[in-house]
Structures are given as structure tokens and as C-alpha cells.
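step=encode ok
step=design start
structure_in=
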């Protein structure tokens, strides 16, 4: 299946439905709406489904809340609590289990700074367990975090750094947070994807590195991603499709020409657009001008959701006691 650039399982499913007019074999989908939050649970349970989706077998949960852009504080809290609940569906929190949270990305590039921003607001407790165990509240679990940077800053593959930390710390699971790419601008910073299959650092900007998964790290890896960019060629392709449809509706003569454009293969159009863009700007991605505020808001939502999930008996108001 030809796929426009996207890291979201829900969008890969949408593309397949557009092209084939049917559900993907070997994939189960459940869609629910809770107020202003849409939850789509995609389970890939057969190899055929994994091949079509281009993703490993496992669970992919997507939370969509367009109202995030309106900065509704009540919605922020609802999304955080929903995130914590959905994380509990695929992973259990035990009092004695250590969690390593990895904030992937480049803190010097705003659309790629999501991971480091989230780790800055997490309730970090592993050192308290080690040095001040009497100060640990009931319901708190050992949590540590790292923002390893990117290859261009450290000169070391991100996967190698994380493997080294995992071998030393020996966590019971890893939670990796990274920026993703979407095919729709409206999903940028308003959509959260959770997966129990791991992640490839840099996937959102096409620099796919060594994957982080149970196979590579030896422990379960939960991936949390938020789209912060849209592939420019994908966006241009969608704009052309809408423009052609509008022209067909209004055209009285020469409609055959527009029909030819509409009937071009998706891959042909996408390849043509990339050929136009590449000589000038390479693999161009687009992000909203207000991305600074969007990253700040969504990173706060993720951090609160993780704090609730990892420390279920602690009131979010008490988190500041554990944040430096």
C-alpha cells in the first residue's frame, strides 16, 4: 500500500480505507468518544495486518482533542487523566517496578523538543528511594529519566546511549517520548499516540535510527508520540486533491482535464511534488508558527498523564514536591 508520510496508526488505517474501501485484515479497531476526546484503539494481531500497516504487531491507542489549541485547562486535565487510564490498559504500575522515561529529540529545535520538555516536568523518584526511603509517600514508584539528545549533538547513536543506561539501571520498563509526523495539520499537537511496540528515534523527521523495543533493550517499551510536523509533500498533495475537487464542481467545460488530475495515482502525485521540492529544500516538513506554545501545552499534558499513571496514589497537586 502506498502511504503518505505519517507516523500515526490511525492515519495509516484511514489511508487504507480511502484506497481499498475496507478494513485492514488482521487489524481490530475500536472508536469511542468521551466528551471532547476521541479515542481510537488499533490492535494489529496478524502479520498480514502488520505488513500492510508497516508497523509491528501490538496496540496503538490514539487520543484526539482538537480543543487543546484553545488552551482549555479543564480539557488539559481530562486528556492527562485519559492518557493515564489508557496507559494502564497496556502496562501495569507496580510499587517495586522501576520505570525509565526517555525524552527523545533535540532540545534546540522546538518541534523536536517534546521529549526533553516532558522529562523536565516529571516526578522523578528513583534517587529518593535509594537515599531517602523514609520520605517516599505511599503509591509512589521509582522513576528515572534521561534526555539523551541526538546524534548531531552527542556523536553517539541515541539507541547506544539508552542501551548503556538500561544495562546499568536495569529498569523494568522504558517509556519513550518523541515527536512524530502527521499527514494533517489539524492533528499537530492535538493528538497523542500510545504504543506498546517501541519506537524508532527521529521517525517524525525521517531520520529513523535504531529502534527502541523489547528486542533491542530487553525490557518492555511503551512509546508515546505527538505529531509536531507535517510532511510538506503530503500536505501539498492533499491541497491539490481538494483544489481539483472544487474545480470539478464549478467547471462547465474542460472537466475532463480535472478528472485526469483526480485520477492520477496517489504515488505519482506524491513523487512529482517531492521532485519539485527536493532540489530546493530537501525533505521539507512544516510546523505551525505557534509551535512554541503548543509544545509547552502538550508536554505539560503528557507529563501530568505520566505522573498520574506512574504514581497512582499521589495527587497531582503534590507533584511539585518531587520536581527539582
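sequence_out=
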Amino acid at each position: 500500500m502506498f502511504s503518505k508520510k505519517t507516523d500515526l496508526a490511525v492515519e495509516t488505517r484511514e489511508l487504507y480505507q480511502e484506497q481499498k474501501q475496507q478494513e485492514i485484515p488482521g487489524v481490530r479497531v475500536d472508536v469511542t468518544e468521551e466528551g471532547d476526546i476521541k479515542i481510537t484503539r488499533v490492535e494489529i494481531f496478524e502479520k498480514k495486518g502488520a505488513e500492510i500497516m508497516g508497523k509491528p504487531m501490538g496496540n496503538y491507542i490514539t487520543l484526539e482533542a482538537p480543543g487543546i489549541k484553545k488552551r482549555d485547562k479543564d480539557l488539559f486535565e481530562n486528556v492527562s487523566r485519559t492518557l493515564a487510564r489508557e496507559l494502564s490498559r497496556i502496562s501495569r504500575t507496580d510499587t517495586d517496578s522501576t520505570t525509565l522515561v526517555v525524552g527523545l529529540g533535540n532540545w534546540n529545535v522546538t518541534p523536536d523538543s517534546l521529549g526533553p520538555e516532558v522529562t523536565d516536568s516529571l516526578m522523578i523518584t528513583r534517587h529518593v528511594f535509594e537515599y531517602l526511603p523514609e520520605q517516599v509517600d505511599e503509591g509512589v514508584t521509582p522513576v528515572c529519566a534521561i534526555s539523551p539528545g541526538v546524534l548531531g549533538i552527542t556523536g553517539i547513536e541515541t539507541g547506544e546511549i539508552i542501551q548503556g543506561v538500561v544495562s546499568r539501571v536495569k529498569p523494568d520498563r522504558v517509556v519513550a517520548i518523541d515527536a512524530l509526523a502527521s499527514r494533517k495539520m489539524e492533528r499537530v499537537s492535538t493528538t497523542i499516540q500510545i504504543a506498546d511496540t517501541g519506537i524508532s528515534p527521529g521517525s517524525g523527521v525521517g531520520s529513523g535510527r535504531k529502534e527502541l523495543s523489547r528486542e533491542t533493550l530487553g525490557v518492555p517499551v511503551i512509546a508515546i508520540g505527538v505529531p509536531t510536523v507535517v510532511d510538506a509533500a503530503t500536505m501539498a498533495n492533499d491541497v491539490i486533491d481538494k483544489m481539483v475537487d472544487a474545480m470539478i464542481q464549478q467547471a462547465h467545460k474542460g472537466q475532463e482535464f480535472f478528472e485526469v488530475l483526480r485520477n492520477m495515482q496517489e504515488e505519482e502525485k506524491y513523487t512529482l511534488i517531492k521532485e519539485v521540492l527536493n532540489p530546493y529544500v530537501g525533505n521539507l516538513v512544516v510546523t505551525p508558527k505557534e509551535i512554541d506554545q503548543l509544545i509547552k501545552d502538550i508536554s505539560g499534558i503528557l507529563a501530568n498523564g505520566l505522573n498520574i499513571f506512574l504514581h497512582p496514589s499521589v495527587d497531582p497537586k503534590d507533584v511539585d514536591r518531587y520536581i527539582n
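step=design ok
step=annotate ok -> Residues 234-281 form one domain.
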